[in-house]
Specification:
InterPro entries: Cupin_2 (IPR013096), RmlC-like_jellyroll (IPR014710), RmlC_Cupin_sf (IPR011051). This is Cupin type-2 domain-containing protein. Keywords: Signal. With 132 residues, the protein is mainly beta. It contains 1 helix and 10 strands, in the order αββββββββββ. The protein has one domain: Jelly Rolls. The strands form 2 sheets. A 5-stranded antiparallel beta sheet has the order 1-2-9-4-7, with no helix packed on it. A 5-stranded antiparallel beta sheet has the order 6-5-8-3-10, with no helix packed on it. The protein is globular, with a radius of gyration of 15 Å.
């Protein structure tokens, strides 16, 4: 690998680790960045992330600085959005989560679960902020 390409790769990985460090305490929740790119709209970027949940794993209440579309790839995940009743999604189902709405996710099926999360967010802000 060329030195410039290696440096760019390491910077992307370091950025991804920092952006997702809020979930470091969520046992059994594993995140993998797939795409991170600036949009043509100034001050906006998009990220696409695969989130894998071990059996019964829980991602605690958090918010994002923009919209999220969650698409369940495998298993069954229960989402709780602030002010709304819980929603249970199965593989193939999707959910739109508005900007700034606190939400959590839990693997409620047997076995592992996975989602593909696509974010359109404000550039330069933390992707995940835990809600206490």
């Amino acid at each position: 690998m060329q030195p410039k390409r290696l440096t760019a790769t390491l910077l992307v990985l370091a950025s991804a680790l920092g952006a997702h460090s809020a979930f470091a305490q969520a046992a059994g929740v594993h995140r993998t960045d797939l795409v991170h790119h600036d949009l043509s709209v100034p001050g906006r970027e998009t990220l696409q992330v695969r989130v894998d949940f071990d059996e019964r794993a829980f991602a605690p209440a958090h918010v994002h600085p923009g919209e999220e579309i969650a698409h369940v790839l495998q298993g069954t995940i229960e989402y709780r959005l602030e002010g709304q009743p819980p929603v249970t999604l199965h593989a193939g189902d999707s959910l739109f989560i508005p900007a700034g709405v606190a939400h959590s996710a839990r693997n409620v099926g047997s076995g592992n679960a996975s989602e593909l999360a696509t974010y359109v967010v404000k550039s330069g802000e933390p992707l995940v902020t835990l809600v206490h």
